# Entry
Amino acid sequence: MTNRFSACLRLRASGVALFLATGLIAGCDAIGPQPWDRDLMAQQRMQLNPYPVEAAADDHIYFSKEGSSGGRAFAGGGCGCN
Amino acid sequence: MARGKLQATLAGLAAGLLGNGAQAADPAVSHVDTGILFYQELGGRVQAIEPELNGTLVFPDQHILTLGIVSDTLTGASPNGAVPSSKSQTFVTPAKPQGSSSVTSASGGTVVLPPPSGSGPGLLVRQYKVAPGATPLDPGFSDQRYAVNLGWAQPIDESRTASVSGTYSTEHDYRSISGSASIAQDLNSKNTTLNLAVNFESDLSQPIGGTPTPFTQMSGQLKGPNGSRTESDVVLGLTQIVNRYWILQLNYQYGYSNGYQNDPYRIISVVDPVSGNPMSYLYENRPKTRMKQSVYLENKIHIDDDIVDVSARYYRDSWGLSSTTLEVSDRSALTRDLYFEPLVRWYRQSAASFYRDYLVANQSLPQYASSDTRLGSFDAFTFGAKFGLAVGEGSEISLRGEYYVQSGNQHPSNAIGQLAHQNLFPTLSAVGLMLGYSFDL
Amino acid sequence: MTRAAESRSYRPVILWFSALLLLSLAGFLPSAKAADFDLAQFKGKVVYLDFWASWCAPCRLSFPWMQNLATQFGAQGLVVVAANVDHDRTLADAFLRQTRPSFPIVFDPAGALAAAYRVKAMPTTVIIGRDGKVLFTHDGFFEGQKDQYLADIKAALNEGPFR
# Structure
C-alpha cells in the first residue's frame, strides 16, 4: 500500500514538473499573472517563508523526533519588483 | 531530545536553514523576527525552552544581510534505547565531572560512582535505576545549545540572485559548522524562479567519556575518540506563481552524509530468547554513510481573505527509512488586524532496515542495529492553532500552540516472553507554545 | 491501479496545455485604451509615464525622485504621469495622502493601460517623446541606474523638431 501510494505521489510530482516545464518551453509570459497583478503575492503573508523563526522551531522539533529532514527552499514569489 | 539526539538537532538546524533567510523574496524594509518556544513532552520526558531571533537587513538595490541566533535549553528524561522489563533495571553512563554545568549527583534518583581505575581524571560514572514495567529513561540530562547564522544575498543581474550563508552551532558534547550557497534565476516576468542551493556541513561529536565501539557492552569506562561526520546537500527548486492567487513550490533535495552517525549514549537490549528478560545492553551501530532524497511540493492559495497552505513531502534514504508528510493550514482574518490559523500535519514513517526493538541473545548480531524510535515505524499528528495580531505598521505579535502525538507499534506480534506484555513503543505526546513578536526596523 | 494512476496523472497536463494556449492567445488581444489617459493631451511634451502600485517597494521609493524630476524639468516640457495599477483603490489613496505628489495620477485598476504599454516589470517607466513615440522603457527602479535614467530623460527632452 505504501509503495503504491508513494509511486503515485512520485508520478504526480513528475506530472506537475512536466506541465511546468512545458510552460517554460511554450514561451515567456505564458504562465502566471501579469506583473501588475502581483498585489496578493506581494503581501507578507503570501511569502513562502513569512515566519522564519516559527519555521525553524518546527523544523527543529520534527528533526529531533523524526527520521526525515529537509525539502524546503525559499526563493521566488513576492511582488516580483525590480 | 536526549543528549544523543542533540547531534541530530544541530544537523536539522543547518538543514532547516538551507535556502533560508537571505533568499526571502523582495523584503522591502529591514525586519526582525523574534520568538520563544516552550516545548514539553508529557510523562516527565524532555522539556525545552528556545528563544530565537532572526534579522533581515535590507540595503539599497536588494542587498540583504541576514542574522540568526538561537539558544536551546534542554532538561528532562529521554529514552536510552532499552526495552522495559518486568524486573527493575540498572543502567550506567559516563557523567560530566561535578562542578560543570550538567549532571548533579541528585538528579532524578541517579547515583554518581567513582570512576573505574585507570580511566583517568575527570570521568565519573552515573548510575540510574528503572522500575519494572517502566520505559527506560535516562533522567539526568540537561544541555545548553547555541547557534548563530549569517547570510548575504544580492542580485547578480535583473533576473538572478545569489546568496551565501554560514552556521555555527555548539553544545557541550557536539559542534556543527555548515555553509551554503545558492543561486536563483527568475523567468516569465518573475513568475517562475529556478533555484539551486548547495550545503556542506561538518559535525563533531564529543560525547562525555568518548565514543563507544559499536556493539560493545554498556559501561562507564573511557571509550574512543571523538566522532566526526560530513554532509553535503543539493536542493533543486522551482517556484511558480500560477495565477494571481496561487503560488507553488516544488523541490528536490539530495543529501549524502558520511562519518560517525551513531548516538553515542544509546543502547539496545539483548534479551533472553525465551523469557524476554534483558541479559545485557550493547551500544548501537549505524552505517557510516547515508544517502537521502526528498521531493517537496507546497501550494499557497489566496481564497477570499483566507490563505490556504497545502504541502506534501516524500522522503527516502539508504537506511531504508521512508516517510510521507502532509500539512494543511488555513489562515483566516477574524478582524482587520487579528487572524487565526489552524494547522494539521500528518506524518507516516517506515522504519530503517536496521531498526530493532531489541536483540535476541542466541541470534548472531546483525550488521547494524538501533532501537532509536526516531528511526522506527510510526504515525505522527500535529494539531496547531495560531493567533496573530498586527500591532503597528509591519509589527505583529503571535501566540501559537501545538500538540504533537507520535504512535508506533506498542505490542509487536513477535515480541518474546515478557516483552509481549510490555509497551515497546510508548506514545510520545508533546505540547509546544510559541510566542512571537516581529517588527520592521 | 498503477496504470490508472499513470493515465490520471497526464490529464492535468492536457488541461494545463489548453490553459497555456488560451493564455498565450490572450496576449494578442487588441490593447484597450485606459479610460482616463489620453496621450494626445501631452503632444509637444516629453511624458515620463510610470506604472506603480502601493504594494511595490521600489515604486514607493521612486516617488521622491519623480517629484524631483517634475520640479527640475517641468519647465523644459517634462510631464510626469504616474499610472496606478492597484486593484484596491484605497491602498493607493493612502499612499498618495502620505506623499502628496504634484504630478498627475492615472488609475488603471484593470491593467488595460499597463497591457497596452506591454509592462513587464514593476515599476516600469515609459519615456514618450514630444511626437508621442516611445523612446525609452525602464524596467524596475534601481538606485545605481539613476544616472542612466537622467541621461535618457535629457536625451528625450533635447530630441525632435520642437526643441
About this structure: The longest strand of chain C covers residues 46-52. The beta strands of chain C are 46-52, 78-84, 105-107, 124-128, 134-139.
